[in-house]
Design goal:
This protein has 218 residues and is of the alpha/beta class. The chain contains 9 helices and 5 strands, in the order αβαααααβαβαβαβ.
């Protein structure tokens, strides 16, 4: 992570508005979910289904729950319980629930793992541009990560939204009186950070993450 990823044109241009994504752009997020999925698959130890098939089933359940309940670790853990029931063809009992509850610990450490050089790059960019933060997910969960990250002071405004689509970007631009042609969305998701922002008339910078979330791939 360096100022280079924010495009040479952006680094050298006049003052702009830079809207940053949070999860998997400023700090690691998906790797935590992937570790839990690995532990879940090992725990289930299904006698006939292999890992790719279990992941396919879990992804299908996750997609339905995201539509119905939104994003966040609670929805993800709900999906694990439903996946267990589908795989074993029996409801979650007390012992199984205790094990599922243990998976919660991965999301409750109270810490976030910043990506390399993020704090330094934000400080450099904030000296020349107006920085905003836009992250989607459950309000309390995302606010906790922002608070413990130590990055909040870099941003003029923080937006926690249920979904990032063109209408969300148009609303934020309108409410804050931003000029779309001078506003950049910077993030790791082609679907919600880049394509949706571009459809709303914003400019965008893609910062690839080596551990992308399957639901965010376009």
């Amino acid at each position: 992570w360096s100022s280079d990823v924010c495009s040479s044109d952006l680094v050298q241009c006049d003052r702009q508005t830079l809207i940053f994504d949070a999860d998997d752009t400023l700090w690691e997020n998906n790797v935590i979910f992937e570790r839990v999925v690995d532990d879940f698959i090992a725990w289930v130890a299904h006698p006939t289904l292999d890992e790719p098939e279990i992941r396919r089933i879990l992804a299908e359940i996750e997609e339905a729950n995201i539509v119905a309940h939104g994003y966040g670790s609670k929805v993800f853990l709900r999906s694990l319980a439903e996946c267990f029931t589908r795989l074993t063809e029996r409801p979650v009992g007390e012992a199984e629930q205790r094990q599922l509850d243990r998976f919660t610990a991965a999301f409750a450490s109270g810490q976030v793992e910043l990506l390399p050089s993020v704090a330094d790059v934000l400080a450099e960019l904030a000296a020349r541009h107006d920085l905003y933060l836009m992250t989607k997910g459950q309000l309390e969960e995302q606010q906790r990560k922002i608070d413990v990250s130590g990055l909040a002071h870099h941003f003029a405004e923080v937006e926690i939204v249920p979904v990032k689509d063109p209408d969300t970007y148009r609303r934020v631009v309108g409410e804050h009186g931003l000029a779309a042609e001078r506003t950049w969305m910077i993030g790791n998701s082609p679907k919600s950070d880049i394509i949706a922002a571009r459809e709303a008339g914003l400019r965008a910078v893609f910062i690839p993450n080596p551990n992308p979330w399957a639901h965010e791939r376009s």
